[in-house]
Amino acid sequence: MTLKSKTGDKVFGTILLLPSILIVGGFIFLPVVQSVFYSFFNFKLTRKKIPLVWNDFDNYRSLWESGKLQNAFGITFQFMILVVLVVFLMGLIMSLFMNKGSSGERLTRTLTLLPWGTPTVIVALLWSWMFQAEYGVVNFILMKLHFIAEPVGFLVNPDTALASVGVAAIWRQLPFMFIMLLAGLQGIPTEMYEAAHIDGASKIQTFRHITLPFLKNVIRSSILVTIITNFKQFPLFWTMTGGGPMGRTETLAILTYKNAFVNLNFGVGAAVATSWMVVLIVFSLLYNRIFKEAKY
Description:
Elements: H1 3-38, H2 58-66, H3 68-98, H4 105-117, H5 120-130, H6 137-144, H7 161-186, H8 190-198, H9 203-231, H10 235-240, H11 252-262, H12 266-290
């Protein structure tokens, strides 16, 4: 291939990428820059005159001194860790079971994908009804099994609200993890398992030395996507609890929304968004650096 043809290919490739670059730049990069910019201003839409007033780091300082930012970070991390761990473990168990070629595999896959294909707001409404104290199916089942003596308001109880939203998130996101891990399992060469069987390896040894290493890249990317999804989770929380009760489900996304679109204080809202955006970027970089792509 000549130098001229190589240059032409690069130019052609750049032209093809240009629409995507413009879309990403216009709809993602510019709003991010604008959000960081607003975080240093006293930007309230309730002001009658000039809405923008430079206030240095006052937005960040007020958030920190009020304790709301730390509380939101804590709740967000609790929720994220809970959902990611359960989704991964359940997805791994389900994929290992389905990879054995059990009967009804296609039907099971189709049914498993239904929660993933359901809009998040619809999922939130469904689980809100199921967790309802008077006529919710969850209370009905628990009372029939004699686990509880009287109905529990799961979404209005500070002790159970976060876990209840977590259940809805797990139900919604489990299919993604299941399908990803199942695809990874089916991509492992059968010769590897046959060789291990001939060598007399146990099931635990086979899982540890063959299955897990081959699934490393799938696990790495799937868990990262699940972490980011739950770190910025908004529809489930806003629809099911609105950040309550007593701020027990006020995550970073909820805190951002309340400040920006309820209190109309875009400066503080932008400060919250900028704070967790920086944390998420740093975490993603460290995560990818620690869990480097495996090569075979």
